[in-house]
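User: Second chain of the day. Same drill as before.
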Amino acid sequence: MPGASHSGLRKPSGFRNGPNGSPRVTHNHQVAEWVLEQSAVRADAEFEIVDIADFNLPVLDEAYPAAYQNYQNDHTKAFSAKIAESDGYIFIVAEYNHSITGALKNALDYLNVEFNNKAAGFVSYGSKGGARAVEHLRGIASELQLAHVRNQVMFSIFTDVEDFTTFKPTDQAASALTPMLDQLILWTRAMEYARSEALVTAN
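Assistant: Same format as last time:
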């Protein structure tokens, strides 16, 4: 979800994702809405949810490498424009088979430059709190030149999801959100400065 607004950030936007037809798609939406609600009280950034399902991205169908930004398809151009608006990102991450969902990996493969020199944080869930999925996602984020913060929010589908259907975070798990946001917003500001310096150097 990051996006931050321009009092120093723009808006950290939050990604939510999940394969259609999975019961965990409901969890993903609930977690994303909870993060948005909790973060909305902050005055140092603005947040919104960006749902990759809204862009109807097929399995990657662009011929050129994403770094060229030579996009041929309207769905890619729309997704690119939306992601480029934000200065930082919170990824809502579901764990499947020790990794992220195919939907999220496919979406990330569409883009590159839009993420460069920005910041990212992670809110994950799964049988082990989604920790293994985020470890995989950190490698992808590094390749996209996303500065990912150490602090992380992890929810268990056994203790934070009632009857495997309703998201009800425990106080202990929920308490990790504020430290992650504090670090993310700090890094988002730092990366905004880094991008401005890069432009000066380039010119």
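The radius of gyration is 16 Å.

User: Great, on to the next one.
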